[in-house]
UniProtKB/TrEMBL annotation:
MF (Gene Ontology): metal ion binding
Record InterPro entries: CHP03085, DinB/YfiT-like, Maleyloyr_isom, MDMPI_metal-binding
Pfam families found in the cross-reference section: MDMPI_N
SUPFAM superfamilies the UniProt entry points to: DinB/YfiT-like putative metalloenzymes
Top-rank lineage group of the source organism: Bacteria
Protein's name according to its UniProt entry: TIGR03085 family protein
Residues annotated as domain Mycothiol-dependent maleylpyruvate isomerase metal-binding: 11-140
Length: 217
């Protein structure tokens, strides 16, 4: 996939998620525990526009400050927050200054959060993704699978449905084989086990442990 295509997919996911935010309003559920659509929209704006607070998303001792900034955004008018997300990052942020960073980081981020909103609603169905985007997700899984599954208490082999492609995500015994489309495997690897359309083959106790594991970044 070219950088231009990645940028196109990042823009498309941003636009589609923004439209869904507008459609559902601020109080709709998401798959992010305890977060409504208003909370998730505020989170996305913080990570792009508030460099001073974004580190707390992944650094535990900075998390209280990040939460306070996010709570402040959540309290602002919802259309304003969604509008800031729709606009994208300002030019002075790393996403605006470093060519390709938006596509590199946000394509998967936005896809995951788009599905966090879609799959928290009734009667959702998986989307058919463009082939090049599906291929990119599979490449990211092969490269990052060991990071996503590092906390798994059992071994994990990812198998891409409809192909003979496999990737070892965690070398351990017993192992579970997780089969699905690339987007489903990505969602599973980011801790959305209960909402990923995959099949799991292995010892039932190992499967149960994997379903409960804290996966993702």
């Amino acid at each position: 996939m070219t950088q231009a295509n990645q940028e196109s997919h990042a823009r498309a996911e941003r636009a589609a998620l923004s439209d869904l935010f507008d459609q559902l309003g601020p109080d709709a559920p998401t798959l992010c525990a305890g977060w409504t659509t208003a909370d998730l929209a505020a989170h996305l704006v913080v990570r792009e526009r508030r460099i001073d607070a974004a580190a707390g998303i992944s650094v535990k001792f900075l998390a209280p400050y990040t939460r306070s900034v996010q709570d402040g955004l959540t309290a602002r008018p919802y259309p304003e927050v969604v509008g800031k997300f729709r606009e994208g990052p300002p030019r002075w942020t790393p996403y605006g200054l470093i060519p390709g960073l938006d596509a590199l980081v946000n394509t998967v981020e936005f896809l995951i959060h788009h599905e966090d909103v879609r799959r928290a609603q009734p009667e959702w169905e998986p989307r058919a993704l463009p082939r090049d985007l599906d291929d990119m997700l599979w490449r990211r899984l092969k490269a990052g699978g060991r990071l996503f599954f590092r906390r798994s208490p059992v071994g994990v082999v990812l198998r891409r449905a409809g192909t003979g492609e496999k990737a070892a995500a965690k070398m351990a015994e017993p192992a579970v084989v997780v089969t699905g489309e690339a987007q489903e495997l990505m969602l599973f690897g980011f801790g959305r086990q209960d909402h990923a359309r995959v099949s799991l083959d292995g010892d039932p106790d190992a499967v149960a442990l994997l379903m409960k594991a804290r996966l993702g970044m």
